[in-house]
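4.2 Preliminary Data

To establish feasibility before requesting continued support, the project team ran the inverse folding procedure on a target of 347 residues. The structure was first converted into the token representation described in Section 3, and no sequence information of any kind was made available to the design step. The complete token record follows.
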């Protein structure tokens, strides 16, 4: 298949939607010895896509020299897309034949690329090309066969958001009967965290907008709280065993106060604001544990696949768009009027 072209969307630089360019003459990649070539069928839209495009991850004012998850500059042009469902259509010479023809989900947090182990894990669509094109290559170890009656678009709603949520729950060691507060609970990661926490037997409270409260109650949360309300007034101090935070921002200071003695706080997002103020006395006097969650623990993606295949979790597919309409899809995503995931269907 080498030497042929494909259709896809490339990111040409940091900025607005004008930096996304539809192309029909992109070179089709070829798999290395330990890689597979995947015919992409569907790819989800994530906060990461927008954050990488705008350079949000950079901590340097007016620069983007550290604008990826690994803290390095983003190389252009880049094919983004971390949520990938597709079919393995070509194998590298060292890859087992059983993978050929399999429908797969791609683990978005990469520990191997270009035939080499990575000292610092890469993120699909950030340090290397992802799924916003007809074809992509990835190390075979990161392509997981999935046996499911769900559609490609439904399956593409899982990899990034649900593995992020499962990683947070794993790091915080959430168990049955524990009280868990989830912020940003209607978004892709938030709604995934709700389902996965409930699958563990936790008692879940969701922080969300009133317009989306019923969606979360239908999923099985015990109660919802308006995201603009005072959570301490609503729940009481020392009332939660775990907080899973995807928001940050001005209400963050209440979250440690909500935790019981020995409570755990896990964070994997800061869309409402990255800089917060912590009273260290709360941290050490209550013996709290804080977890920053980016790199997936080795067992996380395999555990997630088993939950998908056994039907313990279900897709929350808010909308689908053709890949060529990525600008409209990202605009809808940015409005945050949806519950669940927006997915791009690849021609």
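Position-by-position output of the design step:
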């Amino acid at each position: 298949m080498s030497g042929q072209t494909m259709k896809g969307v490339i990111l040409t630089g940091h900025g607005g939607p004008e930096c996304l360019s539809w192309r029909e003459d992109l070179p089709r990649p070829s798999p290395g010895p330990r890689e597979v070539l995947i015919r992409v069928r569907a790819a989800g839209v994530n906060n990461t896509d927008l954050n990488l495009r705008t350079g949000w991850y950079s901590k340097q004012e007016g620069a983007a020299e550290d604008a990826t998850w690994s803290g390095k500059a983003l190389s252009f042009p880049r094919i983004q897309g971390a949520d990938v469902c597709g079919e393995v259509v070509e194998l590298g010479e060292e890859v087992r034949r059983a993978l050929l023809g399999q429908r797969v989900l791609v683990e978005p947090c990469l520990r191997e690329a270009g035939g080499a182990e990575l000292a610092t894990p890469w993120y699909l669509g950030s340090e290397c090309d992802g799924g916003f094109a007809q074809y992509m290559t990835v190390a075979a170890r990161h392509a997981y066969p999935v046996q499911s009656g769900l559609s490609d678009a439904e399956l593409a709603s899982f990899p990034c958001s649900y593995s992020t949520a499962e990683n947070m729950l794993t790091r915080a060691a959430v168990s049955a009967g524990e009280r868990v507060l989830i912020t940003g609970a209607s978004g892709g990661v938030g709604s995934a965290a709700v389902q996965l926490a409930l699958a563990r037997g936790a008692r879940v409270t969701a922080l969300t907008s009133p317009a989306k409260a019923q969606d979360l109650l239908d999923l099985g949360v015990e109660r919802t709280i308006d995201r603009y309300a005072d959570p301490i007034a609503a729940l009481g101090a020392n009332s939660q065993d775990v907080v899973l935070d995807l928001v940050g921002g001005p209400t963050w200071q209440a979250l440690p106060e909500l935790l019981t003695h020995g409570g755990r706080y896990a964070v994997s997002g800061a869309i409402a604001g990255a800089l917060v103020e912590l009273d260290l006395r709360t941290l050490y006097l209550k013996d709290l544990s804080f977890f920053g969650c980016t790199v997936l623990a080795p067992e996380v993606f395999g555990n997630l696949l088993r939950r998908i295949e056994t039907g313990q979790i279900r897709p929350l597919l808010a909308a689908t768009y053709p890949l060529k309409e990525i600008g409209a899809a990202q605009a809808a995503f940015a409005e945050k009027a949806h519950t669940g995931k927006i997915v791009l269907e690849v021609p």
